[in-house]
Structure formats: C-alpha cells, structure tokens
Amino acid sequence: MTNLPNIGKPATNALQNIGVTMLEQVAAMDEPTLLKIHGVGPKAIKILREALTEQGMGFQSDESLSKDFAVICDFECENAPKKRMIRDYLIASATANQADLEAVLEEDFVWTVPGEFQIEGRQEFIKELAAHAQPISTLEIQSLLTHGKGGSAHGTVTDKRGKKVYFSDIFVFRSSGKDAKISGLTSFVVIED
Q: Which GO molecular function annotation, any one, does this entry have (predicted)?
C-alpha cells in the first residue's frame, strides 16, 4: 500500500474523514467524484493524478459512479452483472432514485430490518426511502459478494453533516440468472450518534 502524497492539509483531512488514507483507495475513485468532496480541489487532484501515474495506476473511469456524492468502491463490476446490480442498488437507494430502483428491484420486493420492521412491495420501499432521504456526501462500499441467488455488501454512508450510517445488506435475487432482479433484502444498520 502507498501513502497519500502531500496534497495539503484540507484535502488530506477531507480524504481521511471518509477513510481514504492510501493511494490505492484513491485509484478506486473518479476525478469528478473527488472534486465533490469539500476540501479536495484541482491542485490536490493534479498531485494525486501524478502520484497514481508514477505507481502505474489511474483514477476510476466508470461514468455510472458519477453522482452528486462520492462513491468509493474498489471492485470491477463490468463482468459481474449481479455485483453491478447491487452496486447500482446501493447508489440508487442512497438518493431514493425511483427509476434506478425500479430497474433493479422486483415489484414484490421485500425489505426486512430484523427486530425493527418489514416492508413489502417495491413502491412501498421507495416511498419509505424517499421519506427518510438525507443529502449524503459519501457512499463507501467496503465489500460486495455474489453467488447464485444470493449476495451481500457492507459499507458506510456519510451525510453532509458528517454523520455515518454503517450497513450490512444480504440480497436475494429472483433466480440465479445473470439478469435476475433483487427480490429480497435483509439490512443491518448502525447509526453513529
């Protein structure tokens, strides 16, 4: 692992606040996303680009990750349709984007938060997300696994005030086919005080 180059205190602090401390983590991000992080400016981007090039790396170029917030993930999804679907679900759910959620969720989708509640139906789920949507600054996906009809992911969502929500999601797909939509989700959530 390679330490971050000297990009200035504001940019270093901004990246550390979202858990980015190594150059390899920066390589998992794209330039437009980095520029959306308060404290990271064009000068820091230039220094990071040069450091990445020296190490034989570069910024992420996946346009589907470009949103109004930073998306940090270090896995390739283009040859793994279910991983891509989970990634797209996580991005869409962070903003309650109805069209993107409808693209990946079955109509009879069921969301369970053990010990708290269960919501049945895609539209009811989307309404629930929209009712509690908060402006976020960062979505960090720390791991993502899929196999057959199942999948899982965990990570952190940081809102614009710096409050963190830690999540662990277990996904069930309608079938093991590569285009199968998500039919069920069990979520475990810890909200930072």
A: DNA binding
